[in-house]
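[job 4471] stage=fold_predict status=RUNNING
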Amino acid sequence: MQLRVRVGLLLAILLIVVSFLAINIYTSYGSKSSGANSGQEKGDKESMAHPITLTDANFEAEITNYKGVALVDFWAEWCGPCRMMAPTVDELASDFQGRAKIAKLNVDDNGEIAAAFGIMSIPTLIIFKDGQPVDKLIGVQPKAELSRRIERWLR
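[job 4471] inference complete, writing C-alpha cells
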C-alpha cells in the first residue's frame, strides 16, 4: 500500500512538472519568430509604426493640443485583456500612420490622466478629435470595429 502512495505522488509531481514546462514552452513560442518567413516578419515588424507612449507629463501636448483624430489605449502591464489588445493597437498605429495618432497610456504609472477621464475598467480606448473625447470603448475590441470608429471621425 505504501508503495502505491509513493508511486501516485511521483506521478502527480511529474504531471505538474510536465504541465509547467508545457505552459512555458507555449508562452515563449509566440514571442519568437520561426519558419521560412522569419526574416521577412522581423523586417516587417521593424518598419511598422508604433503607438506613442503617453504620460501624465506629455498627454496635453500629444493629445489635448493635437488637431486631428487620436486613439488612446488606457492599459496596465498586469491586465490580460490589455495584453490581448496590444498587437491590435500596434497594427492600428501602422494602418493609420500619418492620418491619426495612436497612443497608449499605462494607468498604473499615470494615474492623474486615467482619473481625469474616469477610467474604471481596462482596457479602455478613447477616441479624441481635436483634443476632445468623442468615442469610448471598454474591453477587448476587434480591429475592424476600432478601424471603423477611427475612420468615422476622420471624415
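[job 4471] summary: Helices lie at 2-29, 38-47, 59-64, 80-95, 111-116, 143-154.
[job 4471] exit 0
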